[in-house]
Amino acid sequence: MFFVTRYYIKWDKMNEYQKWLLSNEAKALIKRFEKETGWKYINTYFPILGFGEDIIEDWFEVPNWAALDKSRTSKVWQEWSDKTWDFMDMTRSAPTVVYRTTSDVMIPAPPKKKK
């Protein structure tokens, strides 16, 4: 299962945020978060060349629904939020999504038409 959190970064903070994400501090924080929750950080994605909205996405692989619940009480998640708060553009909201792979999802067929 994949947890995708989407958000906007202030334009004047975009470069600084990218540098922070690539820093040893951020990498260590992510490792601690993975250990605490059982989640696996995949990467952070930025849109390029003006394609689509300027929404940033953090992708995580989450082993099960119980692991999702662990983020609610995660001290590292709160620390991560504190460290990145000033980068965030809180004037705009973006949806968070949970995905499953094609083989994991159950899609019901439409009902048979009655004659």
Short description:
By secondary structure, this protein is of the alpha+beta class. Helices cover about 35% and strands about 20% of the residues.
Give the overall shape, derived from the CA principal axes.
Answer: globular
Number of helices: 4
Assembly state of the chains shown? single chain
Q: Helix coverage percent of residues?
A: 25-40%
SSE topology string: EHHEEHHE
Number of strands: 4
Characterise this structure.
- This protein has 4 helices and 4 strands.
- The chain is an alpha+beta fold and 115 residues long.
- It has one domain: Alpha-Beta Plaits (2-Layer Sandwich), CATH 3.30.70.
- It has a 4-stranded antiparallel beta sheet, covered by helices on one side.
- Helix 2 runs antiparallel to helix 4.
- The chain is globular.
- 4% of the residues are buried.
- The mean pLDDT is 90.
